[in-house]
Amino acid sequence: MTTRTAAEFIPPVHDVPRLAAAVQTCRGCGLYENATQAVFGSGPAAARMMLVGEQPGDREDLAGEPFVGPAGRLLDKAIDEAGLERAPLYLTNAVKHFKFVASERGKRRIHKTPSRTEVVACRPWLFAELEAVEPQVVVLLGATAAKALMGSDFRVTAHRGEALRLPALDGIPATVRDAAVVATIHPSAVLRGPSDAREESFRSLVADLRLAGDLLPA
């Protein structure tokens, strides 16, 4: 039995507006059934830097935009402190639909980490975004994004502070094989961490973003 993926829903021409429209019809995995909508990337179509997170959260699912919730606000602060600007950046997620479980009380939707099968099923969208945008630097925010592009054995903690390259993974466009890659924590990990460690975690995120900025060609 062939595992279904998003590949059959992706238009042949990979430009951001066409991809963003087509993603709403994606049925490459079952996550679309409960999500409000697919959340595609946001930013300039020729951005020099792409930031990749895990998946949209509750706020993003409702708004249809990536990184507009609490983690997004913290990321904005980190971007600013790293000496970067958000407007020229392209922000997206490895998985385009919000995966959640309902809370036992009330209507709150609780984030649930996508499975490896769901990440792989959705990955053709990320490959298409990379081909459309052709970033010179890719920042992988958290384990899900890192494993989506660097392989299932990749560990963020083992490669923090390093300038990496994308592997020869089937589906990664040849046009971005020379892009620099920085792996770091997801901003939500800062928010979820122990209160006495949040400042240090935030500073490490800023340092990694600063490294990514330094890797941009002059």
UniProtKB/TrEMBL annotation:
Pfam families: UDG. GO terms for molecular function: 4 iron, 4 sulfur cluster binding; deaminated base DNA N-glycosylase activity; metal ion binding. Residues 40-210 form the Uracil-DNA glycosylase-like domain. Keywords: 4Fe-4S, DNA damage, DNA repair, Hydrolase, Iron, Iron-sulfur, Metal-binding. It comes from the Bacteria. InterPro entries: UDG_Type-4/5 (IPR051536), Ura-DNA_glyco_family4 (IPR005273), Uracil-DNA_glycosylase-like (IPR005122), Uracil-DNA_glycosylase-like_sf (IPR036895). One of its GO terms (biological process) is DNA repair. Belongs to the uracil-DNA glycosylase (UDG) superfamily. Type 4 (UDGa) family. This is Type-4 uracil-DNA glycosylase.
